[in-house]
Design brief:
By secondary structure, the chain is mainly α. The chain has one domain. Helix content is about 75%, strand content about 0%. The protein is elongated. The termini are far apart.
Length: about 180
Amino acid sequence: MNHERDPLELSALPPVTPPGDVWPGISHALQQRAVQQQRRRRATSAWLGIAAGLTLAVGLAFQLSRSAPGPQAEPTALAETAPKAVTAQDNLEALIGLSQQLERNVRMVRSEIDAMPAQSVVYQIELEDLVAQVDDALSIHPDSRELWSQRVNLLLDLEQLYQRELRRDDSYMASL
């Protein structure tokens, strides 16, 4: 053997047989991961729906309690000012109005923030991406209360993120 052509004498090593087919294991692991992600998304959507329902119920209860007459009202006045039954269309309109208000709030709060930590920016981008996905779904199903409630919850999360960053900035300024 010419030492110049094989200075490390690698040709003297015993041949190595390649490992068996590992693709079935990789494929199975990827499928399991996809199933777990799908379960997490469903669970998150369910919780977001519950939170939206609770938010809507509290908002409607608050709105109805504000419009209810005081204890000194006469019985005829009570009959005239009794709240009407809340319909699904009223519910949908309330969600749309809440979504629009939150979007205005998010824009206003976002304009007040100078810089954010990278971790918060990643979370912000994920939330904005989810809002865009819900908006795409709403373009197909504009009367879906579930989609509107998801959008409201995502905007609430986004607004909280910005508010937290503003508080962080305020505490920094206060320490100067």
